[in-house]
Design brief:
single chain; about 280 residues; alpha/beta; Rossmann fold; Pantoate--beta-alanine Ligase, Chain: A,domain 2; 2 domains; six-stranded parallel β-sheet; three-stranded antiparallel β-sheet; 10 helices; globular; binds pantoate
C-alpha cells in the first residue's frame, strides 16, 4: 500500500492505478472500525483497486464540536488498510487540502437542510466541499459511504449528480449497510467517547429505534411510537434527542404515517458522545 500526502504524487499514483482497472474511493476521517473495513471490502468487490482517504476535515465541525478530540490513529489505521489489500492511502494535511487563501464552498440545498443540517449548521457544506475535493483529487470510478450517515449519503449523491462527478445510469455512489455491534449499536468512531457504563446504556438507541419502527410498521400511529422511543432514551440517560423523526428516505421530507421508503432518523447525546442512527420502516 502506498501512503501519499501530497497532490502531485497522488495524481501520478491514481493514474497508474486507473490504468490497471476501475478505482474505488473510501473517504474517511480515520479511527477506523469494522464499518470502514466493510466499505473497503465492498470497494474491492467492485473495483480493481481501492484508495482510502484519511482526513479529519475541520470544515465539517462547528464551533465547540469535537474537532480537537476526534480520535487520530494513522499508524494503526494504516496497518488495518494494508491488511485489507488497499492500494493507496491518501492522507493530506489541512494545509494541503485547504491552502492559504482557500475560498470555495460547496453547498447542497434541500437534503442538507433538515436533521443534522439543522442541528449542525454548516456541517454538510463542509462534507460536500471536502468530498468534492476528494473526488477531484482521486477521480474514482465509484465511492463508498456508510448508510449510518444516511443524510450524508443523500447529500453526496445529490452533489455528485449536480456537479457531474457521476454519469447518469451509473450507481457510482455506493451506500453500504450499517455495521452494528452485537447489542445493535451502530459502529462509529465517536463511540470511543462513551464510558464503559454509557457504552452499555447506548444500546437503548438502536433498541428504541427498532421498537418504534416495528410499531409503526404494524400500524401504530407515529406520534405515540416516537414518544415511547423518547421515553426509552430518557430512561437510559440520553439527553432529549436533537431529532427523532419519520422521513422519506430519499427526499428526507417529514412523514406523518408509514409509506414506502420511510425511515426513522435519530440523533441524541449520551455523555460526551452524540450518536446518530437510522432504520427502515
Ligand atoms: O463520514 C465521514 O467520515 C466524513 O464525513 C467524510 C465523508 C469522510 C467527509 O469528511
Amino acid at each position: 500500500m502506498q501512503t501519499i500526502t501530497a497532490l502531485d504524487p497522488l495524481r501520478r499514483a491514481v493514474a497508474a492505478l486507473r490504468a490497471d482497472g476501475p478505482l474505488a474511493l473510501v473517504p474517511t476521517m480515520g479511527a477506523l472500525h469494522q464499518g470502514h473495513l466493510a466499505l473497503v471490502r465492498a470497494g474491492k468487490a467492485r473495483a480493481a483497486h481501492v484508495a482510502v482517504s484519511i482526513f479529519v476535515n475541520p470544515r465539517q465541525f462547528g464551533a465547540g464540536e469535537d474537532l480537537d478530540a476526534y480520535p487520530r490513529q494513522l499508524a494503526r489505521d494504516s496497518e488495518l488498510l494494508a491488511a485489507e489489500g488497499v492500494s493507496l492511502l491518501w492522507a493530506p494535511d489541512a494545509a494541503t487540502m485547504y491552502p492559504a487563501g482557500y475560498a470555495t464552498n460547496v453547498s447542497v440545498a434541500g437534503v442538507s437542510e433538515p436533521l443534522d443540517g439543522a442541528a449542525r449548521p454548516g456541517h454538510f457544506d463542509g462534507v460536500a466541499t471536502v468530498v468534492a475535493k476528494l473526488f477531484q483529487q482521486v477521480r474514482p470510478d465509484i465511492a463508498l459511504f456508510g448508510e449510518k450517515d444516511w443524510q450524508q449519503l443523500a447529500v453526496i449523491r445529490r452533489m455528485a449528480r449536480d456537479l457531474d462527478f457521476t454519469r447518469p445510469q451509473v450507481d457510482a455512489i455506493v451506500g453500504v449497510p450499517t455495521v452494528r455491534e452485537a447489542d445493535g449499536l451502530a459502529m462509529s468512531s465517536r463511540n470511543a467517547y462513551l464510558t464503559p457504563d454509557e457504552r452499555v446504556r447506548a444500546a437503548a438507541l438502536p433498541r428504541a429505534l427498532g421498537a418504534a419502527a416495528e410499531a409503526i410498521r404494524a400500524g401504530a400511529p407515529v406520534a405515540p411510537a416516537l414518544a415511547a422511543a423518547r421515553a426509552a432514551l430518557a430512561e437510559a440517560g440520553f439527553a432529549a434527542p436533537d431529532y427523532l423523526d419519520l422521513r422519506d428516505g430519499e427526499s428526507l421530507a417529514p412523514l406523518v404515517r408509514a409509506a414506502a421508503g420511510a425511515r426513522l432518523f435519530v440523533a441524541a447525546r449520551l455523555g460526551k458522545a452524540r450518536l446518530i442512527d437510522n432504520i427502515a420502516v
